[in-house]
TrEMBL record:
PANTHER family: ALPHA/BETA-HYDROLASES SUPERFAMILY PROTEIN (PTHR46438), LIPASE-RELATED (PTHR46438:SF11). It comes from Cognaticolwellia beringensis. Keywords: Hydrolase, Membrane, Transmembrane, Transmembrane helix. The keyword Nucleus does not apply. Pfam families: Abhydrolase_1. InterPro entries: AB_hydrolase_1 (IPR000073), AB_hydrolase_fold (IPR029058), Epox_hydrolase-like (IPR000639). GO terms for molecular function: hydrolase activity. It comes from the Bacteria. The chain crosses the membrane at residues 6-27. Residues 66-300 form the AB hydrolase-1 domain. This is Alpha/beta hydrolase.
Length: 311
């Protein structure tokens, strides 16, 4: 009798699981399909390292040292919308979707090392004929920004690091989507299944105030994650872009550096911001008490004001 009921229970669970998975089927979408919504003017595409890199170049082209904005893991150039609206009035602002993310999509050679990401930054700037720039980056983008300053110091005039990564990982809390993407079984399952609720929960995890996460914001992250190849590339990104590899070279960064940190960042806690401040001689740390891991997106007005003062 017990065995009979157990089998019934397993059958019911299997049915509910099947319904749940079917209701959350999410197949890859083409760049052409996604571009209709996410790449209107002034979006353009640039052929770099075998990829069509999605980018935007705004503000006065006479600016000799433009600001280059580099987003973090699973984000896109849209994360900087609030900053760009303010900065482009005075400065030339360039931003682009990194390999593995947004509309740029996977690297054709499946290369997501920090060295390669820095090379892509320089390749984009070379194509746009930019000799020197202010590099700003959040999370992974911050790591790429300061790594570029390490490898190509002559190409960077200033740095703005927003809750940047690069130190050995020591999170207080990791978004569920990040955890699943690193699990072999779960990542295989997520190839064609992606609950929007999972994306929403992951975004709320990195906000200081989860109530600020809107349906429009969730839709953006969700839809761009469906860009063909992005989900499999995310797993490779976590395996290859290893933190800690360049820490011994961080002291070589000597350009003026602004560090912006959200005190409520549980992914890369404030203690790492303080470590960056100690290691980079010419640096200043500004902490926003109510913000989380993406302060530029959560409160662009407050954070960009600090950037304007720094510049």
């Amino acid at each position: 009798m017990i065995l009979k009921y157990s089998l019934y229970l397993l059958l019911i669970l299997a049915v509910f699981l099947g319904i749940y998975l079917y209701s959350n089927l999410a197949y890859d979408k083409s760049v052409a399909e996604l571009s209709k919504r996410w790449a209107p003017e002034p979006s353009q595409f640039l052929n770099v390292a075998g990829m069509n890199v999605h980018y935007r170049d705004e503000g006065p082209k006479s600016d000799k040292a433009p600001i280059v904005l580099i987003h973090g893991t699973s984000a896109s150039l849209h994360t900087w919308d609030g900053w760009v609206e303010v900065l482009k009035e005075q400065r030339r602002v360039i931003r682009f979707d990194l390999p593995a993310f947004g509309l740029t999509g996977p690297d054709p050679k499946n290369n997501y090392t920090i060295e390669h990401y820095a090379k892509v930054v320089i390749a984009v700037l070379d194509k746009l004929k930019v000799d020197k720039s202010v590099l700003a980056g959040n999370s992974l983008g911050g790591y790429i920004a300061w790594a570029t300053a390490v490898f190509h110091p002559d190409r960077v005039s200033k740095l703005i690091l927003v809750d940047a990564s690069g130190y050995p990982y020591d999170p207080e809390s990791v978004p569920l989507a990040f955890k699943l993407s690193q699990n072999p079984i779960a990542s295989r399952l997520l190839k064609n299944i992606l609950p929007k609720s999972l994306v929403e929960k992951s975004i709320k995890n990195v906000y200081g105030n989860p109530d600020l996460v809107t349906e429009e914001l969730v839709n953006r992250y969700y839809e761009l994650s469906l860009r063909e190849g992005n989900r499999s590339a995310l797993k490779a990104r976590f395996e290859q872009t290893l933190p800690g590899a360049l820490i011994e070279k961080l002291h070589t960064v000597s350009v003026p550096t602004l560090l912006i940190w959200g005190r409520k960042d549980r992914l890369i806690p404030l203690k790492f911001g303080k470590q960056f401040e100690q290691e980079i001689v010419n640096s200043e740390l500004i902490v926003f008490d109510d913000l989380g891991h993406v302060p530029h997106e959560e409160n662009p007005q407050a954070t960009v004001s600090a950037v304007l003062k720094f510049l």
